[in-house]
């Protein structure tokens, strides 16, 4: 508290000009010190609820602890990750289901994020137009965003129902299919069911991000391009896209990070089936369903490393392209 | 055939309205379908119909009472409110320092906070489980307040920091000239005008906590302490193949209506909060 209550001298502002620089620096220094005090509670709390559990997860990944008795454990080295015994391999990295989960998660992320980007862009361009009833559209697109993920999963689970579901009914009515599809039970379709539900829920977020960026583009740029005879596609390609690129990349990173940790949608919509299980779902299954805290922690650490690795790649590419741009200018 | 200018404008208008209509229908239809289903019972459930046919409110009574969703609603409300309260309290001073004061390490702190807000929940699951057990919070809503702070806190700090940054410098300068201490600046100058930002940030964090599933599924085992998402996820019928869709949809509608109402009331703020967190960051 002593730092907080320290009052800043009013003379700093009214002091004669010659004394000003010195005073100013000490004011800055004092503010800097106080800043640490102000940030400290948040940092300490954050360490307690995020840093510490992360360290403990890493610790447990080297042990054979069970979920019901986490106090009793033996160190097993890297055996939870990969182990060879009697010509056979064990551990998470030797489990075909883990690699299935990795494949599922990457496929899910790639599909849903690219579809979201595409539809989100279309939606943002639509909302950037002026038309009557704009408020209604804006309100409508917030509905999917506001609905809890679990509810989304249940709603779409019901709509994808093979016999009574609305999706099959509509497809049959428009004669796009001849027999009802088993959206949830069929392994190849169930992943699409998950992607469709996710895209429905998250396109609004993407659209709002892109819209915010679109609205910052000065309109005289478009007028100038129109005078020069640029058509709609050229205007989009040469003006819109480059100008919203930074915001688009940020939105993409957010969405990719979010998609990589997908769990609840898949857990509820397809009951964590092998065809759709995600890496988060796999880690949790090891930990809770099989009570294997050690193996589950190892899988969690791998999830963390994978997500962190992809994030680092993004940052690196982003930085690289920034540097490239600066070099060209 | 060459179209006149007027025809072109009209054509363009037509496509815009058509697109707007399609978008609105796609966005709202699944929820509309859920409401329809929630009002049906028995055989009606299995006749696909796009207009309301019957109005059975039993599903709602059943979902709220017998299935314990009413109780879960209360749990969810308490957990989300307490979590958001704690996070806002801690992050308002941190956000001030991070947005307004230049000091060494500020960039690293901001970067760390951003990273934490993005990391997968499952990465802290077993460590958090140990912490929860150690604190004797297993199977109580306290465990959720503790674990939700993991993702709520970095979020509130981040969004509040971007909001604080957008406030004019003159405010602070005037206060410094008047001899106000840092503490006075925060409590007397910033806190009052931060009201709207606090509401926005709190609302977004509240929705995040309201919707959380993994921690709630793992740390709570008794029915009485469940939060809404888990209660809905766990609704089962007589057998695995006979899900009580009417009850599930009624419960889904009940838990979604408050959130949709909040979002539509605070529409502008929510949109600005969402984009402030990302675009300017």
Automatic annotation (TrEMBL), chain A:
Query: What is the protein named?
Result: ABC transporter permease subunit
UniProt keyword list: Cell membrane, Membrane, Transmembrane, Transmembrane helix, Transport
Region described as Disordered: spans on this chain: 1-22
- Domain ABC transmembrane type-1, chain residue ranges per copy: 102-314
Domain of life of the native organism: Bacteria
Lineage of origin: Bacteria, Pseudomonadati, Pseudomonadota, Betaproteobacteria, Rhodocyclales
Localisation: Cell membrane
Give the membrane topology: Multi-pass membrane protein
Q: Which InterPro entries match?
A: MetI-like, MetI-like_sf
UniProtKB/TrEMBL annotation, chain B:
Signal peptide coordinates: none
PROSITE patterns listed in its UniProt record:
ABC_TM1 (PS50928)
Membrane topology per record: Multi-pass membrane protein
What SUPFAM superfamilies does UniProt report for this protein, alphabetically?
MetI-like (SSF161098)
The ABC transmembrane type-1 domain extends over 73-266
Keyword annotations of the record? Cell membrane, Membrane, Transmembrane, Transmembrane helix, Transport
Q: Where in the cell is it found?
A: Cell membrane
Q: Which residues cross the membrane?
A: 14-35, 77-99, 108-129, 141-161, 182-210, 245-266
User: One of this protein's Pfam families, by short name?
Assistant: BPD_transp_1
- Matching InterPro entries: BP-dep_ABC_trans_perm, MetI-like, MetI-like_sf
The entry assigns this protein to a family as follows: Belongs to the binding-protein-dependent transport system permease family.
Question: What is the protein name given in its UniProt record?
Answer: ABC transporter permease subunit
Species for this entry: Aromatoleum petrolei
